[in-house]
Every structure is written in structure tokens, then in C-alpha cells.
Task: inverse folding
């Protein structure tokens, strides 16, 4: 059963299969909501792409631990359905750092990543990745 779009707090699914991550909603204790939303996304059994506008925040240890455990449990399904995680980082210097982090995440979880300078570029890459058959 899918959540109503209004029940999503962390992910904006209005343009599904393009999913925007709302970093400003990642507050301490938000891991449970994040898990419910991620369960819904993979439960749809449809390919999707996630776009994150760069936002630097310190995540609470318990939230990071809970997300890590969820990712470990759902690694194969997420890698099958999530065609890309795209980070938007307008700052060229910071973009290099985010690219390095994205490469590590790609290796760990098997999900393609991209780091781009603008939301328009993110949308272009998202559309391209959704067209790629697995």
C-alpha cells in the first residue's frame, strides 16, 4: 500500500518517478519517517531517481545508524529500482568533495550517482537515467 503524497515529509514524490529529497526535513529522530517513505518507494516496484539539493547538516548518530541498517537490509532492491542518486551542488569546489562521497556510496550500494551544478541539469540527468533499461 502506497502512502498518500501528503504523507511524505522527507521525500517529495509529486513528480514520481523523480523524487526530490527535502534535506530541511531531516531533523533528529526523522529516521523512522525516512524508513516508512523508503519502504513505500521500493514497494512501488517502479524505477525512480532521487535528487538531493546539497545541504550540509549533521545527522544524529541514531538516525545515521538506522538509515545504514535499512540500506543494508534493502541494498539489492534499492539498487534494482533506484536508477540514480543525483546531488545538486552549485559550488565547484564543494562539488568535487560531493563527487568523491558519491563514488564511495556507488561502490557501497550499487546505485549510480551524479553530481551536477543545477536543478535543471539534475532533471536532465534524471530523465536520461530513467530511460536506461536494467
Result:
Amino acid at each position: 500500500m502506497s502512502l498518500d503524497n501528503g504523507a511524505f515529509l522527507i521525500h517529495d514524490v509529486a513528480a514520481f518517478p523523480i523524487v526530490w529529497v527535502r534535506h530541511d526535513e531531516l531533523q533528529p529522530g526523522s529516521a523512522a519517517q525516512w524508513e516508512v517513505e523508503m519502504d513505500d518507494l521500493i514497494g512501488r516496484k517502479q524505477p525512480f531517481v532521487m535528487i538531493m539539493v546539497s545541504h550540509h547538516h549533521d545527522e544524529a548518530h541514531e538516525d545515521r545508524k538506522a538509515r545504514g541498517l535499512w540500506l543494508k537490509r534493502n541494498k539489492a532492491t534499492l539498487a534494482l529500482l533506484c536508477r540514480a542518486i543525483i546531488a545538486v551542488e552549485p559550488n565547484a569546489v564543494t562539488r568535487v568533495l560531493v563527487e568523491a562521497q558519491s563514488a564511495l556510496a556507488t561502490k557501497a550500494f550499487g546505485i549510480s550517482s551524479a553530481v551536477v551544478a543545477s536543478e535543471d541539469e539534475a532533471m536532465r540527468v534524471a530523465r536520461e537515467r530513467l530511460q536506461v533499461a536494467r
About this structure: Residues 92-109 form the longest helix (18 residues). The two ends are 25 Å apart (CA to CA). Helices lie at 31-43, 61-73, 75-81, 92-109, 119-131. The longest strand covers residues 82-88.
